Amino acid sequence: MGDIARAEDFGESLQRAVDWIDESDSCLVVGHYDPDGDSMGSTLALAAALRELGKDVTAYNQDPVPYICEFLRGSDRVRHELPEDAEFDLTFVLDCSSPDRVGSEFPQSGWGERTVVIDHHRTWDREFADLYLRDESAAATGELIYDLLEALELDITSDIAECLYCAVMTDTGGFRYSNTSKRTFQVAGELLDAGVDPWRMASHVYESQPLKRIELLREVLETLRLSDCGRLAFIRIPRSIVEGVERPGELTDGFINYGRSVRGVEVSTQLRELEGAGWKVTFRSRGNVDVSKLAERFGGGGHHNAAGCEIYAEADDIEASLETALVDLLDGDPE
Questions:
Q1: Distances in Å between the alpha carbon of 144 and those of 13, 26, 164, 262, 287?
Q2: Is residue 333 pLDDT above 70, yes or no?
């Protein structure tokens, strides 16, 4: 199995991926379940690029295409089931580096003769793929897909450019988050040259929200609580709030950022109730706390400023434990 992250060997890894694409006829492109803009935008971009090269391509996700990506070309071609006898020469796993992140409904037949991971998260499973194209400094997996398309010497169409721009824009919070780099703006500029209209993209992603999302936001914000020290914010999304709502995870995506936006808050934590006795816990940090390390303690992972896990306990107990741990992390960090 491979163990390749971006360093002096990243170019070599890109070349190996190019060679494997040249040798392949059928490709599967899959992102993590409960896809976000980066996962789905990257999936659609790579699938379209591989089709441009004449490959037989299947784009898959066990969950629906998020509403912010429905306007992108190819979104209607994403499959949510695979035949048990499916065969692929090459499987690309995007925006996650662990096989369980593609979802429990992903069939064994989905693993191709070779598997390539393209990802930018800090935490990863080093054992299951044959090749890893990883760069923790990349703002989004979409940046790495752009690198691959450059290595393939493929002309980026306006449709592919829109998918990549969506990936990069959403994972940087509209180019506001600390993961935004000079490279991010360089890639975005190249995508504009390829035909992206920034207002069209921002309008679809940020200013075309379902009314139900706004109604849910009103209810969720009523659960907002700050710690006694004022540096931590907690919000909850119990099942009672989203009961009967289709795709609740998608409609509540980003609510956690309202907690982080409160003046003085260093870390915002969101608890979303799962079926059973568990909660999906998401963290957003301003930078003084590496929340990926905290998430790893509970079997999760992510980035320095954005991470998550699942915890099976009562919500009050979860918040109390996390508050103690987060205060310890804050107090242990230099000013």
A1: 12, 21, 10, 33, 23
A2: no
What are the boundaries of each domain within the chain? 10-206, 213-332
Q: Cα dihedral sign for 23, 111, 281, 68?
A: positive
- Phi/psi at 283 (5° precision): -120, 145
Pairing relationship of beta strands 26-31 and 56-60 according to DSSP bridges: parallel
Pairing of strands 232-237, 225-226: antiparallel
Provide mean pLDDT across the span 267-283.
93
What are the backbone dihedrals phi and psi of residue 122, each rounded to the nearest 5 degrees, phi first?
A: -75, -40
- Among 23, 70, 24, 97, smallest CA distance to 205 is for 70
Task: Please tell me whether residue 78 adopts helix, strand or coil conformation.
Answer: coil
Q: Which fold has domain 213-332?
A: Diaminopimelate Epimerase; Chain A, domain 1 (3.10.310)
CB 221 within 8 A of CB 257: no
For residue 186, CA distances in Å to 62, 139, 146, 168 come to 33, 12, 11, 11
| pLDDT at residue 65, as a whole number | 97
- List Cα–Cα distances, 236 to 44, 83, 282, 301, in angstroms: 32, 38, 10, 20
For residues 106 and 29, the answer to whether their CB atoms sit within 8 Å is no
Each residue's pLDDT tens digit, 139-190:
999 999 999 999 999 999 999 999 999 999 999 999 998 899 999 999 999 9
Fold held by 10-206:
inorganic pyrophosphatase (n-terminal core) (3.90.1640)
Please name which of 130, 134, 154 lies closest in space to residue 144, comparing C-alpha atoms. 134
Q: Which amino acid is at 274?
A: L
What's the one-letter identity of residue 42?
S
Contacts of 153 (CB under 8 A, 6+ apart): none
